[in-house]
Design a protein that fits this description.
Number of helices: 10
CATH architecture of the largest domain: 3-Layer(aba) Sandwich
Low-confidence stretches: 222-229
Distance between the termini: 28 Å
Number of domains: 2
Largest sheet: 4 strands, parallel
CATH class of the largest domain: Alpha Beta
Structural class: alpha/beta
Radius of gyration: 18 Å
Order of helices and strands: HHHHEHEEHEHEHEHHE
Mean pLDDT: 93
CATH topology of the largest domain: Rossmann fold
């Protein structure tokens, strides 16, 4: 994966344009064309860089582990598993501007149950149990192959845990997650985070002690327009 430190100018230019109201795709195209970015670099910017107001709104929704006690949690199944499995494979995750870690694998839709899947599930369980959460709902996209099998695997594992664990498949993951009244949502999906009342970065909680997490470059507070022309 490309080192984000080598992308300081594109990252800062992209932030600059977003902070001044440019539409996201327009700003991304301007920056990508200026620096002749390849697909991987464009994907990094698209996934992790945001304007300050947008990022701040989502950061304000993040809750610490202590606030998860005795609460219901709803997990964006593939969003969580793909990121953890990415870390298990030794690939880095990125700490995004809005405060959550994200992978850059673009594996959604091509997900396959692997040797890392049960390992990732075990790590999630190990992380959640000390938090004393009341109940956990995993939500998987029904349009991804073998989602039903994965949901069944989660339910079987959950039967051995001292808390309620459910798993469902649906073609409308975002809608199902945001309909969970009073639940803390675990997702790095922008749309889900925008509509959530509270978000817990479960992926970070799982990988923080052993995974490789990279940070985006910082930018000077004063960034003048002539620098991006």
């Amino acid at each position: 994966m490309v080192d984000p430190k080598t992308l300081q100018d594109p990252v800062c230019d992209f932030r600059f344009l977003l902070n001044r109201g440019y539409k996201r795709q327009t700003a991304l195209n301007v920056v990508a064309n200026k620096y002749q970015l390849d697909r991987e670099c464009r994907h990094l910017l698209e996934r992790t860089v945001f304007g300050e107001q947008e990022a701040a709104r989502r950061r304000q929704k993040l809750v610490p582990a202590l606030q998860c006690r005795h609460r219901r949690m709803a997990l964006d199944g593939y969003n969580v598993l793909i990121s953890i499995e990415t870390a298990l494979q030794g690939q880095p995750l990125l700490l995004s501007d809005d405060g959550v870690v994200r992978d850059l694998t673009a594996a959604f839709g091509r997900y396959r149950i692997s040797a890392h899947t049960e390992q990732a599930l075990a790590l999630v369980e190990k992380t959640l149990l000390p938090l004393q959460v009341q109940a956990v709902l995993w939500v998987f996209d029904a349009q991804v192959s073998y989602s039903g099998h994965l949901a069944q695997l989660v339910r079987e594992r959950g039967g051995a845990l001292p808390l309620s664990v459910q798993a469902v498949t649906t073609p409308h993951v975002d809608k199902t997650l945001t309909a969970q009244a009073d639940a803390i949502l675990c997702s790095a999906d922008r749309g889900v985070m925008n509509r959530a009342a509270a978000v817990f970065d479960l992926v970070y909680a799982v990988v923080q002690e052993w995974g490789k997490i990279l940070s985006l470059p910082r930018c000077e507070e004063i960034y003048t327009l002539h620098q991006i022309r």
